[in-house]
Every structure is written in C-alpha cells, then in structure tokens.
Amino acid sequence: MSVARNLADIIGGGSTVLSNKLTLPSGGLVHIETKTVAEASSSTTAFDFTDVFSATYNRYYLEFNIVRDGDSSATSLFASLSNANTRLTNQVYGGGYYYQTGAASSGQIYFASNDGVHQLGADLDSTGNGYFRGNGYVINPYSTTDCTQIMVKHVMSQQPTTPDEDAFWQEAVTSTEQQSSPSRCTDILFGTIVGASSGTNIPFSNTQTAVFGEVAIYGIKDSV
Predict the structure, then answer these.
(1) Is 83 within a domain?
(2) Which range marks the domain in which residue 139 is found?
(3) Using one digit for the tens of pLDDT, what is the confidence trace for 67-100?
(4) Does any domain span residue 3?
(5) Helix or strand or coil: residue 6?
(6) Whole-model pTM?
(7) Is 122 part of any domain?
(8) Residue 39 phi/psi, 5° resolution?
(9) How open is the CA angle 102-158-41, to the nearest 5 degrees?
(10) Number of domains composing the chain
(11) How many Cβ atoms are within 10 Å of 192's Cβ, its own excluded?
C-alpha cells in the first residue's frame, strides 16, 4: 500500500488499524452552579455554595470575580469548606507567589490555619474596593482518603493608585489540608478576611467583609 493511501486512510477514516484508534476523549466541564451578586446585595455570605461537591466528580473548575465592597481590613481572599453545612476546622497550609505589574516587586507567600481557613490571595489595600479575578480548581473535596486541595491563579487589583499599573498583582496559590486527616466536604464559602502572609494562624473569627461579583463552579468529567 502506498504512503498516499496510508495517509488517506488515516485522514478519511479508512480501514487501517491506526485510523481506528484516533478517537477523541469525551470528558468536559459540567456546570453545577453560578452565583451572581450585585453590589447592592453584597454580604459576607454572598458566595456560600451548598451541596456542590459530590461523589460524581473528583475535580472541580472555578471561575471567579470576587470584589470586596469598600474599605476594610479584610484584605485577603479565602475559602472555607463545610460538610452538610458543618464547617471544617482542620489544619490547612498554603503558599504561592506574586508579581506586581509595573514594578520590580515579586516574591513568595505562605499561609497556615488550624481553623480550616484556606487563604488564596493577599494583600489588598484597606481603602476602596478590591478585586480578585481568576480561575482555579478544587481537588478531591468528597474524598475521605485523599486531602482536599485548592489551587487558584488570579489578578488582584484595587482602586487606582499613582501610577495605575502599580495597582495590579498576579498571584498563584495552592492550599491543602493535611494528607493524614482528609475530610469530606460538600460546601464551600468564598470571601475576604483578615489574613496573614507569613504562616501565622488565621482563625475563621477574623474580620470578614461583604463581597459581590460572580463565582461559577463546574464539575470536570473524566475522559474515556
């Protein structure tokens, strides 16, 4: 058989063994829930999702535009997990990096909480609205044998400074519970809180403030 015939079989779906194995995966994203909150309806529980994690998916994809509403000492993005509306208070750790646009500012950040606070970004200025816009993943939230991990990458920005380009930071953060004590969760809350960037404990009782914007959660369907 000629090379041209081989190529025609592959492209045109001929009878060669190779062409029969060129199948596309059937995985994809399955929309679970989106919350869209106007500024007039901002609250500390604006992005409190219940019953979004289940045994159906091991991994979930996030799209978010979370805006802190006005002045506040709550300068850090965070998430808190719950199981059947009971908040998890286990030990979690996180870390990542940041890069400030328009300036030679970059570095590493790390977080810790013995009260189940997953810090996912820091630090906004305490004046004016603050923005966290990006995407991420939640991995193994329903498992009781593998630890839950949250990974996000976003742009943190705040009301214009001088010059404006100094008001934007790119951040990438991972937060995880201990592998030795994984906990199942069905719910997740996103918001802003008084956090820490050097491993100091972050309790859930720290000041939180109202937020608005939009958060969407999708299940990731495994390929076959």
Answers:
(1) yes
(2) 27-221
(3) 999 999 999 999 999 999 999 999 999 999 988 8
(4) no
(5) helix
(6) 0.84
(7) yes
(8) -60, -35
(9) 155
(10) 1
(11) 27
